[in-house]
Amino acid sequence: MKNREFLMLAKVFDPKKHGIGGWFLSEKLDGQRAFWDGGISRGLLKREVPWANTNKDSRYRVEQISTGLWSRLGNVIHAPDWWLNELPCVMLDGELWHGVRGHGQRQILTRMIKTLVPGPDWKKVKFYVFDMPSPLAIFRDGRLNNPNFKKIFEGIRDWKYGNEIILDWEPCGLTHFERSVREMGKRLTGNVAIFHPQEQLPFQTSKALEIIQNKLTIVCNLNGEGLMLRKPESWWEPKRVATILKVKKLDDDEGIVTGYVTGRKTDKGSKLLGLMGALILDYNGKRLELSGFTDAERQLSPVDLHPDKDAFIWAAEHPGQEVPDRISSVKFPRGSAVTFRHRGFSLDGIPTEARYWRQEKV
To answer: Which of 42, 63, 91, 281 would bridge with 255, disulfide CB 3.0–4.6 Å?
Structure first.
């Protein structure tokens, strides 16, 4: 059985690899990803819905009821009934967003929509739709192996077609995005589900790249997150694909090394055991853990030839822990400065998606 994701995910745009002439361009919203199943599961117990993520549901005192609106990790989004009643009887993939760009706004949005009992803030939230995927694609068999969402998708298409609710639009096969754009423009006419505008780029690559750079500058100057690119003849697939690409502007900043966290075993293996997993930086008086290093850059060693056991052995025996002062990084000693790239800040002023870029030479 093939691996899959719950929803379709984008790769990062690389102008040296990706020819994007004639592709569709839209603003990348810094909201919360959501999937509307057309209402076919609305009112069912969550555990009765075959794609629901029930891994951590034992923590709830009251059994959850499906709203038909789902998060990227297959959890119920508890939108109010008046809001859900505005959604069309078609399957939608998009982003919940409150229309405000800028520093910390995603955390504010999360607080609005993550409550089990929906509040009045939902009046500010819209569903910006960027695709109307086919149920054949959404409910394709496969193994979902996300650390936070492990599930076997099998026979869900049969469950769907045994459901009494008939969708208003349901293509017989896979649908090219170009057709979905036309359908979204016709069908999404309400006040809650909004067709997220798509602009088709020129077919000449140089002109397309020029427009991308201009649009990216405009969006970033408005405190937006970036852009999305989509291939016209692509179709919706439940995996990370190169037919939808994200374009973001990176900022750079500097911090001082104060310590290290050892590597640990992950779902991708144990290659970081015994090595540095992350640098600990002092960033304007705040602690920032930084990743993005090569294996050579992750080497640890005793300080001043300390007679303690080998640094590699200590790190392997203490995964995911901050190292003692007697152990240092070979390349990044405490007190040295490093430059990192990131995409904005959290409400606490911590750089988000920070990755190592280069070492500053004093």
So the answer is: 281
Instruction: Give the Cα separation of 342 and 286 in Å (integer).
Output: 15
pLDDT value at residue 146: 83
Within 10 A of 85 (CB to CB), how many other CB atoms are there? 11
pLDDT at 360 over 80: no
> For residues 141 and 155, what is the distance between their CA atoms, to the nearest angstrom?
7
Task: Fill in the amino acid letter for 176.
Answer: H
Residue 84 has what pLDDT? 98
List C-alpha distances in Å: 304 to 106, 254, 262, 301: 45, 27, 20, 9
Instruction: Classify residue 3 by its DSSP letter.
Output: E
Question: Are the CB atoms for 26 and 51 separated by under 8 Å?
Answer: no
pLDDT(357) > 80: yes
Q: How far apart (Å, rounded) are the C-alpha atoms in residues 103 and 344?
A: 7
pLDDT tier at 270 (50, 70, 90 boundaries)? low
Q: Single out the residue of 246, 240, 250, 242 nearest to residue 353, CA to CA.
A: 250
Tens digit of pLDDT for each residue in 121-132?
999 999 999 999
**Domain positions in the chain:** 27-199, 251-359
In contact, 55 and 47? CB cutoff 8 Å: no
CATH homologous superfamily of 27-199 equals DNA ligase/mRNA capping enzyme (3.30.470.30)
Asked if 7 and 238 count as a contact pair (C-beta separation under 8 A), the reply is yes
Of 127, 98, 90, 130, which Cα lies nearest the Cα of 8? 130
Q: What is the DSSP letter of 7?
A: S
Residues 133-174 have pLDDT tens digits of 999 999 999 999 887 899 999 999 999 888 777 889 888 778
Question: Of all helices (H) and strands (E), which one includes residue 315?
Answer: helix 311-317
